Structures are given as C-alpha cells and as structure tokens.
C-alpha cells in the first residue's frame, strides 16, 4: 500500500477546498529531459517537477501558533506540508500542499529497510519590515540532488522545489515568529516508498517538506560547548557517504554523543585515521583559528574530501572570510593582522601543540541550526585542551563573521544570498 501522499491528485473535478495554482491546460507540456534514471544515471524523458501543476488543499482546522517563548526546536509544526510523488513509470507527479499529517506507508517500504532517505535543512526569516526571505536555498537543492543521485533516488528541478517551498511559506507565513532571533525551520525530505523487499533503486518515492517555527539556538546568549575527541569510532570513511545528508549518517552518532555526555562533554569531535584528522563537530562542520608569526591569523577547516558534508553555513563562512581577506567586502570587527583562509587537513596533534603554545585562537562548529557554535574545551586522549573565548562566549574571528552572516540572513545587510519569498 502506497502513501496517500504519494498519489498524484486528479487535475479535474477538484473539491471546493482544493485550489489549482497556475494554469493547468488539458494538453499542457510537461518539463522533460531533466530527471535522471536512478539505476543508470542517464537523463530520461519523464516529466520533472512542475510548479504549474500545484494543487492546494487548505486545512479546515488550522492551529494557532504558540507563543514564541514556548518553542522547543523541532517540536512544533505548521498547518501545511508539501508533497510530490515520483514513480519510475510516470516521473514526477503533481505537487500538493495539504494539511500537515501522518504518512501512510507499507511496512515493506524501502525507506524502512534500506535507509533510502535523505533530508535538508534551511530557514525562512522575517525582517523588521515584515519581509520574508530564504537563505541560499539553491545550495540546499544542489546538495539534495547530489545526495539523491548517490542513493539511486531520482533528481529533480531544484528551482521548481524552491518555488513550491515559497508557496508553502506564503500559506503558513503567520507561523514565522515576529521576534528577533526566531525563524521558520524548513525540512525537505526524500524517501523511497516502493512496497517491496530487495536492494534496488525504488520504483516509487516521495519528496515532502514540513516547517517548524524555532527560536534562537542560544536563547540566553552563546554558551561554548565541550567536545570529546572520539578515537574509537569514525563518522565516515574515504569513498563512503560522509559528504551526503543521509539519515543513515546521523543515527550512528547518537550513541557516540551519549558516550561523550557520560564523560562530561556536550558533543563529540569526529576524528579519522591514525593521525586523528579532524572531520566534523557532532553534526556540524569544524573550524579552527590559528595565530602565526607576523600577525598572521589563519582560519582553517577540513577540505571537502568526500568525508565532509558540504555545509551551506561552512561555505558561507569561507566566502565571507575570503572576501574580507581580499578586501572585496570588509567585515566590521574583524581582528587586525593578515587573515589567511585555508581548506586543509588538520590533526589533533597540530591543535594540541597550538593550544600549548597559545596559538589556538578559537575553535567552533557551523551549521544551519546554530549558525556558529563556539568551543571552549576538547577532551583528547585523557586530557583537556582549553580554548579561549570572550566574555560573550565567542572568539575574535567567529564573532564578527556570525554578526555579518546573521545580518544577511535577517535582511539587515543586503546580499544576493537572501532570496525574497514575499
């Protein structure tokens, strides 16, 4: 039995509470030759996602958004969701915005048995003038398509999905808290829904999007975290799936995080190989700031070598820092001296030696939820490395970058990364 969300709704004889958005002509031309066959990777002639086919079913029992102060991350959801079915026989079906509700899937659905599932995370912001924006959604769609191809799910027109997400946000825009530091977290998800056992590309799949109003990750101000350098377990391996946003990458980390908590640390620091190369901070990208002779400050993060997730915030931090270093776009508050930005391998030996010499200026993680998460302590091989932070919990480089980045996200600083919803 397939999910009721995965059936393409009829184009004619719509109920009175269903609205067809955009022209839907009897012989409308479908967008062909865009999707890839999940088995061969070759382009197909099947229809891609089309915004003009969108149907909207509004909730007859909408909820009232809760008080912003009561929000817990990821526990509250808006009234509507977006769903788009796909089948190997007919390609992408009609998108539908419908009341938020459970999925109905067969117990043999491939998502349950073979982890054919991926997801994304991005946010919508409301600025002081009420304008709603998304932050770099094209990056999320690019990563989502790359991940889909990696696990033999079909690819899709990312621009169309962005437009459909905008439609969803417009319907549920009153769920975006009108309060500084708050936003609407958006979770696109893509799953295999074919009812069959056997490891193979699914013949049916479902892309859906849900939204959750969220508050600031650090409501009482930045609180640096303590990391446990994990040497017993590895997050990813060369040639594996570390660079893809798959649910299968996250579940194995829960037990490791629990073990770190038992030892008195908030999160784990993923290390790899005999030299203990730094890869990621929990579920975030890792950054370090080193002080070198001659007043040189180096901002460094591990390279995208196939084991590192290409984070949107990671890319944004690097781009802003490089623009500052080149003089193209100065970031207010950055420390004096020459800034050098590098993507290179970093080992715990280098971090330990720099900390001992007073040359480790800061260490932090980056991600959509927290944006920047400062670190003040790393447990490694039985001892703690202490990392300096300022009175506000942040460091000299991450602080101004965070302010600048949040300024772009919230519309205080004009930038092409900010995409207007309405």
From TrEMBL:
Residue numbers carrying N6-(pyridoxal phosphate)lysine? 245
Q: Can you state which reaction this protein catalyses? A: L-valine + 2-oxoglutarate = 3-methyl-2-oxobutanoate + L-glutamate; L-isoleucine + 2-oxoglutarate = (S)-3-methyl-2-oxopentanoate + L-glutamate; L-leucine + 2-oxoglutarate = 4-methyl-2-oxopentanoate + L-glutamate
Query: Could you give a single Gene Ontology term from the biological process aspect?
Result: L-valine biosynthetic process
Report a single Gene Ontology molecular function: L-valine-2-oxoglutarate transaminase activity
Q: What EC number(s) does this enzyme carry?
A: 2.6.1.42
Give the matching PANTHER family: BRANCHED-CHAIN-AMINO-ACID AMINOTRANSFERASE (PTHR11825:SF44), SUBGROUP IIII AMINOTRANSFERASE (PTHR11825)
**Protein name, as recorded:** Branched-chain-amino-acid aminotransferase
Which species is this UniProt entry from? Phlebiopsis gigantea (strain 11061_1 CR5-6) (White-rot fungus)
């Amino acid at each position: 039995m397939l999910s009721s969300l995965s059936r393409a709704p009829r184009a004619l004889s719509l109920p009175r509470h269903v609205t067809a958005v955009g022209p839907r002509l009897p012989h409308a031309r479908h967008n062909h030759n865009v999707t890839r066959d999940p088995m061969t990777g070759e382009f197909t002639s099947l229809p891609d996602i089309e915004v003009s086919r969108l149907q909207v079913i509004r909730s007859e029992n909408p909820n009232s958004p809760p008080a912003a102060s009561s929000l817990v991350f990821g526990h509250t959801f808006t009234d509507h969701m977006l769903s788009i079915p796909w089948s190997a026989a007919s390609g992408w079906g009609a998108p539908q915005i419908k009341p938020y509700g459970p999925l109905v899937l067969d117990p043999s659905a491939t998502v349950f048995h073979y982890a054919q599932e991926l997801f994304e995370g991005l946010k919508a912001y409301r600025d002081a003038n009420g304008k709603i924006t998304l932050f770099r959604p094209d990056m999320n769609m690019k990563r989502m398509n790359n991940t889909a191809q990696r696990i033999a799910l079909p690819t899709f027109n990312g621009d169309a999905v962005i437009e459909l997400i905008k439609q969803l946000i417009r319907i549920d825009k009153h769920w975006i808290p009108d309060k500084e530091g708050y936003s609407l977290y958006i979770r696109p998800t893509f799953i295999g829904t074919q009812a069959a056992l056997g490891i193979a590309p699914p013949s049916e799949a479902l892309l859906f999007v849900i939204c959750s109003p969220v508050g600031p990750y650090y409501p009482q101000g930045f609180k640096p975290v303590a990391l446990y350098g994990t040497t017993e377990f590895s997050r990813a391996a060369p040639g594996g799936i570390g660079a893809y946003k798959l649910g299968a990458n996250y579940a194995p980390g829960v037990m490791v995080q629990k073990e770190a908590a038992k030892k008195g640390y908030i999160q784990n620091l993923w290390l790899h190989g005999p030299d203990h190369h730094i890869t990621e901070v929990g579920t975030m990208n890792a950054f370090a700031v080193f002080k070198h002779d001659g007043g040189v400050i180096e901002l460094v993060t591990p390279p995208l070598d196939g084991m590192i997730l290409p984070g949107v915030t990671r890319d944004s931090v690097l781009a802003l820092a490089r623009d500052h270093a080149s003089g193209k776009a100065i970031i207010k508050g950055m420390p004096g001296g020459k800034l050098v930005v590098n993507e290179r391998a970093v080992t715990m030996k280098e971090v330990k030696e720099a900390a001992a010499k007073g040359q480790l200026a800061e260490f932090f993680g980056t991600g959509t939820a927290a944006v920047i998460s400062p670190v003040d302590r790393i447990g490694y091989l039985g001892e703690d490395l202490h990392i300096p932070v300022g009175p506000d919990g942040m460091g000299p480089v991450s602080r101004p970058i965070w302010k600048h980045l949040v300024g772009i996200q919230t519309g205080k600083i004009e930038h092409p990364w900010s995409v207007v919803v309405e």
